[in-house]
Design a protein that fits this description.
Layout lengths: L7 E5 L5 H11 L5 H5 L12 H8 L7 E6 L4 E11 L3 H8 L6 H17 L1 H4 L5 E9 L8 H15 L4 E6 L2 H9 L3 E7 L20 E8 L1
Parallel strand pairs: 4-5
Antiparallel strand pairs: 1-2, 2-3, 3-4, 5-7, 6-7
């Protein structure tokens, strides 16, 4: 990028963009994403998402819950945020998908997602039958410090409201993202160190190194 900032467009993704979104996620989301890089399995030393994980994220494009930040001059995707509808039974739905997982990595990831849904309990805490839950928020490194992440969250809040959700929530996995939630008047309803999590058999399946090891769930009414 040069010294002059180009205009950023914020909009909902369409299904024909799935390949481009996949490239963006693999370029600047998954390499830094806490859960993906913290999975512990000596038999699978390579760090990266499974194909099932990628397809799971992309499935929300077809539901109109993926918002993009686009550099209008270059036409490139520089930010991605993905939401899903969560309900009191979402954890059970995630666990029901585990037996069909083709890899242990994806099975353990879904178990973790289910655990986060149970501990966050956004619907129960805010007494709502459903919530518009943001679980992916990523900005291309060269475009950071321009409030793109915050504008994407603002866009998703408006999107959730337009879809008649009363509550918007989000899982944040770094301090920078958590501060975005605070600036948007979201409140932290749950925070868990990934290093304290153990699966259903007591195994320590995720180990985070570095300062970012907390998964924080934030929520607010819209």
């Amino acid at each position: 990028m040069n010294g002059s900032f180009s205009k950023i467009l914020y909009r909902i993704a369409v299904p024909s963009e799935c390949d481009r979104i996949r490239e963006a996620l693999l370029a600047f989301y998954f390499p830094e994403e806490l859960v993906t890089r913290s999975y512990l399995d000596e038999s699978q030393p390579l760090i990266g998402p499974t194909e099932e994980h990628i397809q799971y994220v992309l499935s929300f494009v077809h539901q109109g819950m993926v918002a993009l930040a686009i550099d209008e001059d270059l036409g490139t995707i520089v930010g991605v945020t993905v939401a899903r509808c969560v309900k009191p039974g979402t954890a059970d739905e995630l666990l029901a998908m585990v037996p069909a997982a083709s890899s242990r990595r994806w099975a353990e990831t879904m178990r973790l997602f289910a655990h986060l849904e149970l501990t966050g309990d956004v619907c129960g805490r805010l007494r709502s039958r459903r919530a518009y839950h943001v679980f992916v928020l990523a900005v291309e490194p060269h475009y950071r410090r321009r409030a793109i992440g915050q504008k994407l969250m603002e866009f998703q809040m408006a999107r959730g409201k337009s879809l008649r959700f009363r509550v918007v929530s989000a899982d944040f996995t770094c301090e920078v993202a958590a501060r975005i939630g605070e600036r948007l008047d979201m409140r932290c309803v749950c925070a868990m160190s990934l290093n304290q999590y153990r699966n259903h058999t007591g195994e320590h399946t995720f180990v985070a190194t570095g300062p970012n090891h907390i998964v924080s769930t934030y929520a607010r009414y819209v």
